[in-house]
Fold each of these.
Amino acid sequence: PDRVRIVYAGPDSARVRRDARAHGVGPYLEDLGSVDANAARDLVRTAAASVVIVSEGYEYQYPGKIFDAVATGNPILLLAPAGADAAQVVRRHRLGWAHEPSDVEGLAASIRRVLDGETIHPAGLEIFETHHVMGELDAALRRLLT
C-alpha cells in the first residue's frame, strides 16, 4: 500500500477528496485540481496506469482520455457501467482492465497487477488509425451514394 499514489487532476476536487476519505484512500490521494492539457498529458505519460471513468448515461461513448492513455502504452484501469462500449474496447484490444464501479475486489486485483509490474500487450489498434477510419467512412459514404 505504501507504493500506491492516486493523482487526481480535474475540476471536482472537493467531491474526489470527500469520496477518497469516505473509502479510506484519502492518505493516498494527491489532488492537483485543474491543470492545463500539457500537464494532464505529462501526468498520464508518467503514470503506472491511467484510470479512465465512463459516467452513467455515457456508456455508448469513448472518453477522449482513453486515447491519451493508449498513446502512453500504460495499462488502463477503466471504471464503467456494465455494457459500456469503452469496456469492450479495453478488453478486445488488451489495453488493461475494465470494471464496473461496484467491482471493488476486481479493481483491487487489477491495481495489484499494476503494482506487480504486469505489462499490457495491445492488439488490433490499427483500426483506430486515421487512414483506416477514413477508409471506413469513405466506403460507407460510397455505399450511400450508390
Amino acid sequence: KGDGCDAVLLDAAGTLIRPRAPVGETYARVAAQYGAALDAGRLARAFGEVFGEMPDLSFDWDSMEELQRLERAWWQTLVRRVVERTGGRIADFQGFFETLYGHYARGDAWECYPEVPRVLDGLRAIGCKLAVVSNFDSRLPGILQALDIHDRLDEVVYSSEAGSAKPNP
C-alpha cells in the first residue's frame, strides 16, 4: 500500500498496559488488609515463577458465565500457589483473593505506557487495522475501555475466550 499498512497485532500486558503498582506490592498491600504480613519482593518472585508454571489461560466453554468461572478458578489457583510459595498464610484467603481479583479488573489498577495513545492514533492515521491479541481474560476489554484505548482498536482477542493461548497458531 505504500505508506500505509494492513494490520498491526499488539499484546496487552507489557506492550500497551502495565500494572500501576508492582504486583508484589499490590499482593502485600491487599494481604495486609486481611491481617497477613507478606514480603513484596518474595511475592513478586513467587508470582513470576508460578505464572510461568501455570497451564495456558485458555478454556473450552459454553457460556460467558462458565468462562468467567474458569478464569476465576485459574487465577485463584495461581494466587494460592504464590502465597504458599512465600510460606505465607492468609486466614481469609477467599476474601483476599476476591479483593485482589476485583482490583485487577479495574482500570485504575493499570496504566498505559505513555506513548500508546499517540502510537495507536498514528497507526490508524496511516490506515492500519489494530488488534490486541493477548494471553489475558475477560477483564481485558473493560480495562482497555477504562484506559481510553479500547475505541482505538478494531478487535480485542484474549486467550481465555479464544480457547487458545499464544504462541499456538
